[in-house]
Specification:
Elements (H helix, E strand, L loop, with lengths): L12 H18 L3 H7 L4 H10 L17 H14 L5 H14 L2 H12 L5 E4 L15 E5 L2 E12 L6 E7 L10 E7 L6 E6 L10 E12 L11 H7 L1 H29 L1 E2 L2 E2 L4 H29 L5 H26 L9 H9 L9 H10 L2 H4 L10 H15 L5 E3 L11 E3 L14
Helix pairs in contact: 1-3, 1-4, 4-8, 5-6, 7-14, 8-9, 8-10, 8-11, 9-10, 10-11, 10-12, 12-14
């Protein structure tokens, strides 16, 4: 019986058509400029507006707010095509900012910012990590002091994707520096253009993803309207971050699987063409066995990912499964890439070969959005029965916020980690008390 080509169950004709559009756009508009973007450590500003015109931005945001009116399926297609083309472009982080505004912004905020983000006129960045506070979010020092109808912001951020071109920041601040732990954290939207006291620092030299805009940000008495606060009041920032983790981690998994599949494809082609000892590498048993292992792992990853996407589309992707996907799929990606580099031999270490660039670009995926070690703490820390079927990507459900918060604070906040005491009361402002039982080392929960 002939092999049957596997088709993702969430894929449909509309998405296939959209994929062709995105693929052609990337080939014609992004790929020719990517080497220059790598040298300048950022894409051109015009790339964002071009992406907006073709419908690549805010694909799952409703048309009411300028988006494409699609689902996570469109978002997944964009991530996959960027990964397979080997193009570093921060559209996923841009989408995360939009999701914060969509979930916690009021109608006026949504109308003000989302349409311009969809057009690529406002580039979004998430600004949470600081030089001395990556994993330990309770250690952030950036403050927002209330002064009449403004907040006055002082502090700095680092590892900020899209930072130098960002026109809109989702900024984590301490609105109540006296509050213990994470209680005083809030999220502010900062419109960065021509903002007094705001400064973009140097572009950071990374191991991979050289075309991706990553830099430091500085705030010196920056004034932002109080109306830019996300949510109904101060102190909700950490809970808001926790609620967005399934989307974020699923997006990382999508890129990991697409990269792994592309690595297998280009390595299969390479071993059929590369000669050694008078015959193609594919004629050696080791090459065939290694490729068989890689292809199998990539397929298993694809089937698991498709199940996660289906569950997300149905509003049923719980934080435990999202953690499983983020950890296992990026670990799997790295195993496959490492084997594929090995099969390329010395050429696999040369950056002129795509496999070498993929290898370098992918290493960070086991670190950001929560390190894989933290994912392994999250997974057994909660009874599957407690989260199975939870609509955690539905921000209106307080039990979802509580479940996600409980997972992350138990496993990712280290010796001073926090735990919620009341499921149903969390969004209504229930207190978060210190958990003194100790804990594991923590990790960055943001991509940069």
């Amino acid at each position: 019986m002939a092999a049957v080509t596997y088709q993702s169950t969430w894929m449909n004709e509309e998405l296939r058509t959209f994929r062709k559009t995105v693929r052609q756009f990337l080939l014609e508009e992004f790929a020719p400029h990517h080497p220059r973007w790598c040298q300048q450590h950022r894409p051109d500003a015009e790339a964002w507006t071009a992406a907006g015109r073709v419908g690549m931005l805010l694909t799952d945001v409703s048309e009411e707010y300028g988006g494409a009116g699609g689902t996570f399926g469109q978002e997944a297609v964009v991530i996959e095509e960027l990964a397979q083309a080997g193009i570093n472009f921060g559209s996923s982080v841009h989408s995360i900012v939009a999701h914060y505004i969509l979930a916690y912004g009021n109608p006026e905020q949504k109308r003000k910012w989302l349409p311009r983000m969809a057009r690529g006129e406002l580039v979004g960045a998430v600004a949470m990590t600081e030089p001395a506070a990556g994993s330990d979010l309770q250690g952030i020092k950036t403050t927002a002091r209330r002064d009449g109808e403004h907040y006055v912001i002082d502090g700095s951020k680092t590892f900020i994707t899209n930072g130098s071109l960002a026109g809109i920041l989702c900024l984590a601040v301490k609105t109540d520096p006296r509050a213990p732990g994470l209680k005083g954290m809030s999220l502010l939207i900062v419109e960065a253009a021509d903002l007094p006291g705001y400064r973009v620092g140097r572009s950071l030299e990374k191991v991979g993803r050289h075309a991706q805009d990553t830099c430091e940000l500085f705030f010196d008495a920056v004034r932002v309207p109080v109306s830019n606060l996300l949510g109904s009041g101060e102190g909700q920032g950490f809970a808001q971050m926790m609620q967005q983790l399934p989307f974020e981690r699923l997006a990382v998994g999508v890129g990991a699987v697409a990269t792994a599949e592309q690595a297998v494809a280009i390595t299969t082609k390479y071993v059929k063409e590369r000669m050694a000892f008078g015959k193609p590498l594919i004629d050696f048993q080791n090459a065939r066995f290694k490729l068989a292992e890689c292809k199998t792992e990539a397929h298993v990853g694809r089937v698991f990912l498709d199940n996660c996407i289906e569950r997300y589309l149905a509003g049923q992707l719980d934080p435990v499964t999202a953690a499983m996907a983020k950890y296992w799929l990026t670990d799997c990606e790295w195993r496959i890439l490492d084997e594929c580099v090995q099969l390329h031999g010395g050429y696999g270490y040369m950056t002129e070969y795509p496999i070498a660039r993929m290898w370098a670009d992918s290493r960070v995926e086991r670190i950001y959005a929560g390190t894989n070690e933290i994912m392994k703490e999250v997974i057994p820390a909660t009874k599957l029965s407690e989260t199975q079927g939870s609509r955690v990507n539905d921000s209106s459900r307080p039990e979802s916020a509580a479940a996600t918060l409980r997972l992350e604070t138990r496993c990712a906040i280290g010796p001073a980690r926090e735990a919620i005491g009341n499921r149903s009361g969390f969004l209504a402002g229930s207190s978060i008390e210190p958990n003194t039982r100790g804990g594991a080392p923590e990790s960055d929960i943001r991509p940069w």
